[in-house]
Design goal:
The model has no long low-confidence stretch (mean pLDDT 92). Helix 4 packs parallel to helix 5 (147-160) and helix 9 packs across helix 10 (266-274). This protein is α/β, with parallel strands linked by helices. It contains ten helices and eight strands. It has helices at residues 15-29, 47-59, 75-87, 115-125, 147-160, 173-185, 202-212, 218-226, 231-251, 266-274; strands at residues 4-9, 35-38, 64-69, 92-96, 131-136, 164-169, 192-196, 256-260. It is globular and about 50 Å long.
């Protein structure tokens, strides 16, 4: 059984960052991924840089899936962006609500409150023209009041027309399998690709995980803390842990892997090579 790879990038802030990204893309593209996704900052804060990164990828014939966040946006703005992407030959969109500005609540932040509204809008205006991916949270969205409410939100995105999903990263595969079981009981059968976060810096990972609700198991936190400033040892250990996670997921039937690359290639390449994914697919 073959499984596809995909890689997430974020739009660089500087020319130097863009030059580095071009090298990263060249290295990762050698793994024959299905597509690269490009993030879109909260409230459209990286809009022009996202466009520039997408344009560069498309100019090289690389399949690209831009993220599109709807919080703070009007329907006219979203329509303009979707028309731009359609005209560029983009056929896959990652549709997201987006992060709320600090201290803000829903309401007064544009014409969309939730991602399912964005999905429905895309399907109403561009029926069948985009493959729509949405976010999924095996360990639950940090703002969800409970697990069942979070599952309801996810199901509404699928009912609105989402055809695939990418999960928040996790290090406990049981969370993913249980999430799939819960989705199956709700009649949700779209492909749900696990998101994979390589481990390269414990301090940054811990801070980001605490903010987004991704759990780092206690045994893993303690092992990572023990490496202190030994970056090489932490990198090698991170490759071991994440490669084993990926092997568990693929052999259990996950439809693919979506790597949050953080605009670097080394850890993702090391994990994929450990799995024998140099050709872009894992064959059981």
């Amino acid at each position: 059984m073959n499984h596809a790879l995909s890689f997430e990038l974020f739009p660089p802030k500087t020319e130097k960052g863009m030059e580095k990204l071009k090298t990263v893309v060249q290295e990762l593209d050698a793994l024959n991924p299905e597509y690269f996704s490009v993030t879109y900052g909260a409230g459209g804060s990286t809009r022009e840089r996202t466009f520039a990164t997408v344009d560069w990828l498309r100019g090289r014939g690389i399949e690209t899936a831009p993220h599109l966040s709807c919080i703070g946006a009007s329907r006219a703005e979203i329509l303009d962006i979707l028309n731009r992407y359609r005209n560029e030959g983009i056929r896959r969109i990652v549709a997201l609500r987006g992060d709320l500005p600090s201290g803000a609540g829903l309401g007064g932040l544009g014409e969309f409150n939730y991602a399912n509204e964005l999905v429905a809008f895309i399907q109403a205006n561009f029926p069948g023209e985009f493959q729509i991916e949405v976010a999924a949270y095996p360990e639950f969205h940090p703002q969800a009041p409970n697990a069942w409410s979070d599952l309801d939100h996810f199901a509404r995105k699928v009912e609105a027309g989402a055809q695939g999903a990418i999960t928040q990263y996790f290090y406990n595969p049981d969370a993913y399998w249980r999430f799939l079981d819960d989705c199956g009981r709700r009649g949700v059968t779209i492909p749900i690709v696990p998101g994979i976060m390589p481990i390269t810096n414990y301090t940054n990972l811990a801070r980001f995980s605490d903010a987004c609700g991704a759990e780092i198991p206690r045994w893993l936190r303690k092992r990572l803390e023990a490496f202190a400033d030994d970056e090489r040892a932490l990198f090698d250990f991170g490759v071991d842990v994440v490669a084993e996670l990926c092997r568990n997921l693929l052999e259990g039937g996950a439809p693919g892997l979506h790597f949050y690359t953080m605009n670097r290639a080394d850890a993702t390449l090391a994990i994929c090579r450990r799995l024998g994914l140099d050709g872009g697919t894992y064959t059981r």
